[in-house]
Amino acid sequence: VDWTGPDYHDDYIMVTEPGGTDSINYTRTRSGSPLNLKLPPEPGSYDIVYIMRQDRTELARISIEVSEIGATLDAPATATAGETIQVDWTGPDYHDDYIGVTLPGETDTINYTRTRSGSPLDLKLPAEPGTYDIVYIMRQDRTELARVSIEVTEVEATLDAPDTATAGETVQVDWTGPDYHDDYIMVTEPGGTDSINYTRTR
Predict the structure, then answer these.
(1) Cβ-count burial of 22 within 10 angstroms (0-12 exposed, 13-18 middle, 19+ buried)?
(2) I need a labelling partner for 126 at 20 to 30 A (CA). Which of 45, 50, 154, 188 fits?
(3) Beta strands in 55-142 (DSSP E)
(4) C-alpha angle 120/96/149, rounded to 5°?
(5) How many of the other CB atoms lie within 10 Å of CB of 96?
(6) pTM exceeding the 0.85 threshold for the entire prediction
(7) Rounded distance between C-alpha atoms, residue 105 and residue 92, angstroms
(8) Which SS3 state, helix, strand or coil, does residue 117 take?
(9) CA distance 88 to 90
(10) What domains, with CATH codes, occur in the chain?
(11) Residues 183 and 200 sit within 8 Å (Cβ to Cβ)
């Protein structure tokens, strides 16, 4: 935004609803002219206003039309629980935008990757099978720009080890499984989840 004005201490230029006085976003005039002003995430008519900090006095106002912004997502229809998939996307790639996996219809992400990673990007799926959504979220106001569904299927593994062995012995274990990053095979108390010893599948 190019502007002229007194540039008094803490004067600012803001975006607001038409005729409004409450700022949605603003930038101090001390940033100079031109300055950067972030527009609202929702399309529509807005005003840009110069506000003198003393008594919040309006010195200038112009109108701006904010158009809708879109995004697209292209991801597999199905994948295995815990798998890292590639997601192709298009979108604004604003600062701290991200693509995440959520429960259907939700916006709270289970895992996410920032769009600054480029397209395609890697996205880790949840460990539990089921139906999930992949969403493009614009960081400002956590605004959803695109959503697709994905079916996460159960992951399988097998173990083949001796029935008996000597205390302290090192045994060989045959296994099959996804071999995801930092997966491991461990020895534990019967039914337990805390490892006594373990070896990475890698």
Answers:
(1) exposed
(2) 188
(3) 57-66, 72-74, 78-80, 84-90, 98-102, 109-114, 121-124, 130-138
(4) 50
(5) 11
(6) no
(7) 22
(8) helix
(9) 7
(10) 12-66 (no CATH), 72-153 (2.60.40.1930), 158-200 (no CATH)
(11) yes
Instruction: Please work out, in degrees rounded to the nearest 5, the angle formed at the alpha carbon of residue 116 by the alpha carbons of 114 and 117.
Output: 80
pLDDT tens column, 108-152? 999 999 999 999 999 999 999 999 999 999 999 899 999 999 999
Within 13 Å and on the Cβ side, how many CA atoms surround 10?
Answer: 5
Give buried/exposed letters for 162-187 (b at 16+ CB in 10 A, else e): eeeeeeeeeeeeeeeeeebeeeebee
Which helix (H) or strand (E) segment is 153 a member of? Answer: strand 143-153
- Report, as ranges of residue numbers, the positions in the chain whose pLDDT lies below 70: none
CA 173 to chain centre: 39
Which residue is listed with tokens 């199905």?
Answer: 78
Cβ atoms < 10 Å from Cβ of 68: 8
Residues contacting residue 190 through CB under 8 Å, at least 6 positions apart: none
Cβ contacts of 192 within 8 Å, gap of 6 or more: none
* Six token digits for residue 132: 């999930």
